[in-house]
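We store chain and fold; example below:
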Amino acid sequence: MCKQQLDHVSSAPRFLLEPPTIWLFGAVFCVFLNIIVLFAATNPATNDFSRWYYTGALSLRLTGSPYLYSAVEEGLLPYPYPPLLAYLCLPLSWASVTTATYIWAGVNVLLTGLLTFQFNTLLLPREGLSRKTRLQAFLVVLGLLMWYPPQLTGNVIGQMHNLVAISVMACLLSLRSGKNVRAGISLAVATLLKIFPVVMVISLIAPHRKRAMMAFIATGLLFALITWQTTWYYMSSGLLTGGEADPAEAQHYSDVLAGQHYVSLPSMAARMFTANNYSVPLFESRVCRNLFLVVTTSAILIVSIVFLRRRPHGEPAFAALICVSMLIVPAIGYYHLNLALIAVLVCYRSVFESRRPDQDSDNGSRGHWHQRWMILGLVIAFLLTAMPVDYGLASSVCPEWLTPVYTLIHTGWGLFLLTPQTYGLLILLGVCLAVSRNEDDGEDLQSSI
């Protein structure tokens, strides 16, 4: 690629545009190795797909509802999620649970490839690159993404993280290209899959995005009307707010919410102030738990509103809403941190495209250091969100000499150290807000291409 072309696409990482040959061989090797590891590590007995999603699909086929059938003695737990995923998994219910689990693992590999394509669409320009360059960039990003710890974890345990991330990414890309109806439908699908993306609907509240908001509402209403019985059951039985259809299981949901693989602030509060099987809390107090949630959530919302009020509809604002949704909504699993990559890429692209060659020396110097601080923030946020659950010190495999460390981070004040991913999201939110505030006046999401 010639120098003029590289200058034209200077916001794209150079290692994607001209990757060394060894990188390409390494990327292909990483992809094949990851697929082997994925299928070797997939365990139908403990896989989230086999325990929940398959149950919902099987129940839907046998009873007409995802919520009326379970076989706990066979490891098939009651389906606790919104009904859409059960409908999507319905074709797999005709296969055995083992076969369906491995098919789902293969689907997640394909979805990882689709997510990679979306990432490259965000990073690379529409014109000026050959097919060979785009293919090379795809292989490099795919190799990196498949080994990104949250992505790998979600693929191994059979989560729906790819479907949610692809839907959110489709919304972002559609807004960038001015396809508002498609954006609204995409965000509605993400919300129907896992609820928490509904926070991002704030980005659609604008006169020029009226069609996107109408599409979002119409998609939700249409699905609710078509599946009114299962949707009503989900909303009225306690599943939406409690995680279990049986009210007697509320304590079980509270205990699950405290799991160390959940990275939101409500989960942090559950670990610190309620009795659970994952940690020894500071003390048990529902009042302190609620106070912690009110203070932290209010602080995040107030700071976000203050910073986003001038530029509420740009790409960094959308990235900030991703972080907000993952911080304030309960039960955000570690595997959903592939969404944090979207925010990282958006901010990376915005920071580098904000460079102006005609800046005077003083402003240029200040801008240069400002960019450095934001890039440093992105790097720190990325490293923190990529930390493995429990720092890799799972109780079943933790060496005896590291047991004191494991005990420390699961007890009392040490719980503040248990989920560095939460702090990574907070830092990432700060960078998104800073980038959004420094966007040029008049620049909009659609024009940020």
The longest helix spans residues 97-123. The chain is about 65% helix and 0% strand. Residues 2-10, 356-362, 440-449 have pLDDT under 50 and may be disordered.
